[in-house]
Amino acid sequence: MSYFRSHILVCIDPACLAKGAHEVEDALQDELVAQGLIDEIQVLETSRIGGCSNGPELMVYPEGLHYVGLTPDDVPYLVEEHFLKGRPVKKFMEQIAVVTDEELGPPKPKEVRVVLRNCGQIDPNNIEDYIAEDGYEALAKALAMTPEAVIDEVSRSGLRGRGGAGFPAAKKWQLCRNVNDSPKYLTCNADEGDPGAFMNRRVLEGDPHSVIEGMIIAAFAIGASYGYVYCRAEYPLAVKTLNIAIQQAREFGLLGENILGSGFSFDLEVRVGAGAFVCGEETALIASIEGKRGEPRPRPPFPAVKGVWGKPTNNNNVETYAVVPQIMLKGADWYASMGTAKSKGTKTFAIGGDVNNAGLIEVPIGMTIREVVYDVAGGIRDGKGFKAVQIGGPMGGCLTTAHLDLPIDYESLTAAGAMMGSGGLVVMDEETCMVDIARFFMEFTQDESCGKCTPCRVGTKRMLEILERICNGEGKDGDIERLELLSQQIVKTSLCGLGQGAPNPVISTLKLFRHEYEAHIYEKRCPAKVCRALIHYQIEDNCTGCMVCARNCPVEAISGQRRAVHVIDPNVCIKCGICMQVCNFNAVAVTS
Amino acid sequence: MKNGKDVMQVVRSAVTQHGATRDELIPILTDVNHELGYIPQEAVTEVSRLIGMPKSQLYSVASFYEMLSLHPRGRHVIKFCENAPCHVVGGRQVWQALRDELQVLPGETTPDDRFTLMTTSCLGICAVGPVVVIDDDVYGNIEPSQVAGILARYK
């Protein structure tokens, strides 16, 4: 058996690929061949190693050295010094001070990694790496049990669907199992469309076998014979990694006929979307798998009864399946020991916005918003004050300082007017305009409305028009009431979750920040000084007359003599804010 | 012929690869779109004939998905991420730079057919925002000053 004295792991996260990771990898291979080292040193691909902010990155084992910022031209020198002469190259090494994996670094305080445990640790393109981390042991264990016992184990673990609604996973499986029809199908929702949410992408790219193993176990429990992973086309690397993983699982006899000699057969394929947010809705997803327009349909019948090809189908998302092997392996009691009374286990979140440590986190369910924002994510950027957190994606809601001690679990969030959703957390500081935020999300849902039902298609359009008017300083008396009425109607009458959730950002901001809407409408004022039509730039008396602002103004709206206070002509000013950015004396102020 | 490729050839090869069934419609159309830059009328007719599906249903699918186009696009398609995480780290300025450089509105193609400017939904690589995708190449951490240089790589 050949023996490699050294392994080079190349990060092939999209961020590093965008900076030329493949070119560096090719150069490495070529150089190792040229130096006659190719039989001694192995080059492997892996998901994110470090921050990718200074990619392409490499990790060299056994030394555990981290090289960053490489170009193909650096490779010959690196190979000669490190691998031929055994002298690590300092200038390419990651400086400890700048270890900033903005997405997923070493576990942050209070983090518990279950779903993300293998990401960045193993080679996702090598099934043996996964197997070495106890991979597929859970499958072997499950196949030796009865399907009922598997469902019972998952039931006792308290696992709830991680796609957003939080329906108990075991109950869903049981419903599908009980339907007297065949064949049965399994679908995995990998259509992670919420802006800023990329938890599932990391799992698919970093640990695809955990999802595949979870799907095989679920299929066994339900009695399904075929599965589909519906992945969005915006994730090309995830699609590629999954396809490689599926192929390897087949070669190892883990997919296909008579899996591990158990008599159970199951196979699966990847279906790639073509760019439609609504396909994350389960009935739309099924339509898209069948090659139709991805439009939702009324339920019942639920997919458990009539899903793909009109047959019983169980649909869970990436994170739900990925956690199943861990539950089978470590037991329901272990999983149920984390979380709250009604929401067990851990949840991954993509936390973004105005926090110090943005990125991916995984925490036990029930952690308070305060702990997540201040302890895990390191608090608000630039020492500013916390204003709100938007949770649950474009159909979620906002929570304020009053909710800081609210535990993050399905029930508490829903009761407070937000929702768990897929796990996007956008933290906003005091300089955020909540009307503008509501407008932003409404623009998104309006754009993504599939157009099938009128309340969503037309209703969201009308709401967006009112919100745009308010932000433009043209709000009228009665606008708030009209928004409230429309919200109620859309929630009640829309066909699917997209429409029913679309007004949520407006409802929750109206409830918590009504005064901001009123200020826009009645006082023509944007309290956060964000809405362009309602703000004015002016130069204060501490202006030194350096003329930098006047030189940079794109419309020549600024006048004044050298060493004298300058003036902005409000009739010419387009409120681009450049003067404020370039001023070295903080002399430009925004008023509203 | 479209973009130097034989439309019928492209369609038949896509249908052969995926199989002549209705459930493979989206993969087939995606391939045709990728090869030709869009889905021309002749391709719709041929796919309809090969998989035995009415053209009306084919249109309903092709017009639904953002990534499928029934109209010609430029030789290179630029997709700019317009979502919140990119927006707040300077995306707005990059977007302006792109529009200034190309002098077109979103969805439009430059008069020389070189570029079509589009927006994309979140690509999930928010840590390196703002993000611009040109054809299959992803560019991260873009600054407005880099836009012209990047565009110059595409002829």
Give me the count of strands of chain B. 4
Q: How far is the first residue's CA from the last residue's CA of chain B?
A: 20 Å
Shape verdict of chain A? globular
Number of discrete helical segments of chain B: 6
| CATH homolog superfamily of the largest domain in chain B | Glutaredoxin
Give the strand order, joined by hyphens, for the main sheet of chain A.
10-9-13-11-12
Tell me the β content of chain A: 5-15%
Helix content of chain A: 25-40%
Description:
The complex is a heterodimer of chains A (592) and B (155). With 592 residues, chain A is an alpha/beta fold. Chain A has helices at residues 14-17, 21-34, 75-84, 127-132, 137-143, 147-157, 169-178, 199-206, 208-222, 236-251, 282-289, 318-330, 332-336, 369-376, 410-415, 434-448, 454-471, 479-493, 497-501, 504-512, 514-522, 548-552, 578-582, and strands spanning 6-11, 41-46, 58-61, 65-67, 185-190, 226-231, 267-272, 313-317, 346-353, 359-364, 386-391, 397-400, 424-429, 536-539, 558-559, 567-568, 588-591. Chain A folds into 5 domains: 6-98, 3-Layer(aba) Sandwich (Glutaredoxin), CATH 3.40.30; 127-336, 3-Layer(aba) Sandwich (Rossmann fold); 346-429, Ubiquitin-like (UB roll) (Roll), CATH 3.10.20.600; 434-522, de novo design (two linked rop proteins) (Up-down Bundle); 535-591, Alpha-Beta Plaits, CATH 3.30.70. Chain A is 38% helix and 14% strand. In chain A, a hairpin with a 3-residue loop joins β3 and β4. The longest helix of chain A is centred in the last third of the chain and has 18 residues, at 454-471. The model of chain A is unreliable at 96-101 (pLDDT under 50). With 155 residues, chain B is an alpha+beta fold. Chain B folds into 2 domains: 7-62, no CATH class; 76-151, Glutaredoxin. In chain B, strands 2-1-3-4 form a 4-stranded mixed sheet, covered by helices on one side. The longest helix of chain B has 19 residues, at 84-102. Chain B is elongated and about 50 Å long. Classes of the chains: A alpha/beta (592), B alpha+beta (155).
